[in-house]
Structures are given as C-alpha cells and as structure tokens.
Amino acid sequence: MLFPVYWMVNASLQPAGNTLRGEWFPFHPDLSGYATALRDQGRNLVTSLVVALGSTLLSLALAAPAAHALARFRLRGTKVVLLGILITQTVPSIVVANALYGAYNDLGLLNSHLGLILADSTAGIPFSIVILHSFMRGIPEEIIEAARVDGAGRLRVFRSVVLPLSRNALITAGVFTFLFAWSDFLFALTLTTTDTVRPITLGVYQYLGAHTNQWNAVMATAVLASLPAAVLLVVAQRHVTSAATGAAVR
Asked: Residue 248's pLDDT is what?
C-alpha cells in the first residue's frame, strides 16, 4: 500500500523524463520538479486551501448548533430528520453536481470559491451533524442542568459548556470535512469551466498528458497536494482517536 507513495516521492526527486528509468533511491535529488510544480500549480494549491478551510468552517458553524438541537431539545420529527441526514449521504455526488450546475449557472456561482465551498459543504454538513449529534447526546444532563441553575441561557450553555466538551468531536468532524473538500474532484470538474478557480485535484488531472516528459513535476505536485492532508491527520490524530473512543464508551 505504501509503495505508490514511496514511488511518488522518489519520482518527484528524479530529473525530468520517464520515471520507469529512474533510480530506486534519489541519491542525487533534483528539486526542479518542485520548482515547476510550484510555478504551475501554486495558485491551485491556494484555491484548494481556501475552499477546504471555507467548507470546514461553514460545515461546523451549521452542524454544531443543529446537532445540539437534535440531541437536547424535545422536537417532533427528530428521528425523521436524522434519517433524512443519513439518506443524503447515499445520494451520488454526480446527481448533486448536476443539480448545482443549473442553479449555479443562474446565480452566477460557477467558477467561484463560494460556489465550491457551498458544494463541498453538501457533504460536510450532514457528516458533521451525525458525528456531533452522537457525541453531544452523550454529554451528561447534569452538567447542562448545573449551568442552567447558575443562570446560563441556552445560547450560553451551548457556547460555554457544550462546545468545549465537544472539542474532540468538533476536531474530528472538521478534519474529515477538510479532507472531503481537499480531495474533491467531481464538484471541481463540474462547477469550474475556466482557469480562474481550479482546485489542485483538477490541476493534477489536467497536468497529465499522453506524452508528458515532466513526470517529476507531476509527482512533485502530487506530493505537495498530499502534504496538507498528511500533516493535518498527524496533528489531529490524538483528538480523532479520543473522539472515537469516547463515542464507543458512551
């Protein structure tokens, strides 16, 4: 499983040309591929970062209060709402992308950062609600009642009690939402028609050619595209593990 990753890094450090003729280990690493990748794909990397961060913030901003309401308030149809949220996860992305294309064309959201952020959030928000609802439902009722007795309103309880206790769940939902948006290809391919806004996934796809002789640049782009996700997972691993084990105990 790790061999393609190794070969990607190895090929990115080889001189331009056919990677099959490269050495098994870059004894004399050539960084020209990274220089070319940054020159050609730097803007696309920034676009992906803006879209992924925007989608993550929007998803958490909407999912956290929604999950809290579904977990704490006695509302009619809560189970139906949760079932509907789960069902949205089964809808093929191409169906959503086709529907959004027509709407975006009328609203002028094609080839825009906002359009991609909203599109990626269609997957991030339901997923975050499911994760956060499961965790928030396990917060002891006594903690909530103690805060209410001290005079805290519902908004204060949510902001000062529920959110801090749900930190690991929020980080977990945020990490996976970021990864969804960072690795998105279908929405990027469908909702962008120019070079103005092009995420890195689409940049790598269009970088490939039948007769390319810059495989070191292609592989360097792939390495650069993988780094943010890899770093994020390493940094957030402890929180993700704590959220998973906490939900299991509850």
From this structure: 43
Retrieve residue 232's tokens.
């994020």
Residues 18/217, Cβ–Cβ less than 8 Å: no
The 3-state DSSP composition of the chain as helix, strand, coil percent (nearest 5) reads 75, 0, 25
HSE value, Cβ hemisphere, 13 Å, CA-based, for 65: 7
71 CB burial (10 A radius; 0-12, 13-18, 19+): buried
Structure-token pair, residue 103: 């709407």
CB 46 within 8 A of CB 199: no
User: Do 97 and 119 form a contact (C-beta atoms < 8 A)?
Assistant: yes
Residue 63 to residue 69: CA distance in whole angstroms: 10
100/169 Cα distance (integer angstroms):
29
How far is residue 234 from each of residues 45, 105, 109, 167, 230, measured CA to CA in Å? 20, 39, 34, 17, 6
pLDDT at 152: 77
Q: What tokens were used for 68? A: 């809290």
| The two three-digit tokens of residue 46, written as one number | 């920034």
**218 burial class (0-12, 13-18, 19+ CB within 10 angstroms)?**
buried
Number of Cα atoms under 13 Å in the Cβ half of residue 191: 35
Residue 15 Cα distances to 4, 41, 249, angstroms: 18, 19, 52
Q: Note the pLDDT tens digit of each residue in 29-39.
A: 788 889 988 99
What pLDDT is recorded for position 247? Answer: 47
The rounded Cα 135 to chain-centroid distance in angstroms is: 20
- Where residue 240 falls among pLDDT bands split at 50, 70, 90? low
Residue 141: HSE in the Cβ half-sphere, 13 Å Cα cutoff? 3
